[in-house]
Amino acid sequence: MTQQPFSRPGAIDLSALKRTAAPPPSAAPGGGGGGAAAPGGSAYSLPVDEQGFQSVLEASMTAPVVLVFHSPSRSPESSQLAQDVSTVAEEYDGRFLAATVDIDANPQIAAAMQIPQVPLMLVLLDGRPVTQPIPGAPPIEDIRALFNQLAQQLTAQGITTRHQPRGPVPTLGAEGEEPEVDPRYAAAQDALGEGDIDKAVAEYQKLVDTNPADAEAVAGLAMAKVLQRTQGVDLNAARQAAADNPDDVDAQTLVADLDLLGGHVEDAFGRLIRLVARTSDDDRAKARDHLLGLFAAVGNDDPRVLAGRRDLASALF
């Protein structure tokens, strides 16, 4: 989860689903055949059947879709995961759409997606998987942390589109309307969307210089700098250089950047914390400062950052 937060390895092969009959004209876009145990649909989540799966792929052309594969009969905790992901998706007002698949009721989807086990999460964007499959059923707070990281990565890449509600939007009061994208970040996000990372860094830097307390600008700047540092980098060569030179700060920090962009946040933090522990003077300061930049990119409220700060303090003292 190529050298950016989301990879695009290829489109999903839907040939296994083409034998299914077309849905009747009155069918809802997401389908409703997920089985009685599947979480019900709401504004930004829906159960998916074989007939509605194509529309889910099409929805991922607008904004990310988080697919959750579950089996009420074989893994009750997997259905709890589906419900938790649906709950968290609602909190992001369209940044994500949660699509839950009961593989007992829809075995052809599991076959087409080559699902090895449940529970399993997968993020789709542009009709393709953009993360490695995420197994297991983490607690809801860890799911929120994952969504927070993905949202920050999307913002850093200039991806700000949202899904339209698929059902009733929860009542939030008179001021509960979905907020518009903050125009302050438009220039930086547009630059990222155009692939001009240097310009994005400059635009985010202006925002941070104007208001150092702007947490979103700080996170955007930190992530844009990660993208800037890893432009054109050969992943395999970078990893080999780091393996050959374990105390080379530049080699280790580059791989930490690549790990972060690949979604391996704890690996990135752990690499630099260990580097801090075994270096000294300028090398230690450089590794520490780089790690603090990665903390900012992920977000200071993220549980992994809080744990990383504790580990960094132990490595320093």
From TrEMBL:
An annotated GO BP: response to stress
Entries under SUPFAM superfamilies matching the protein: Thioredoxin-like (SSF52833), TPR-like (SSF48452)
Compositional bias ranges of the Gly residues kind: 29-38
Region of interest called Disordered, as start-end residue ranges on this chain: 1-43, 161-180
Domain Thioredoxin, first and last residues per copy: 16-152
Name assigned to this protein: Co-chaperone YbbN
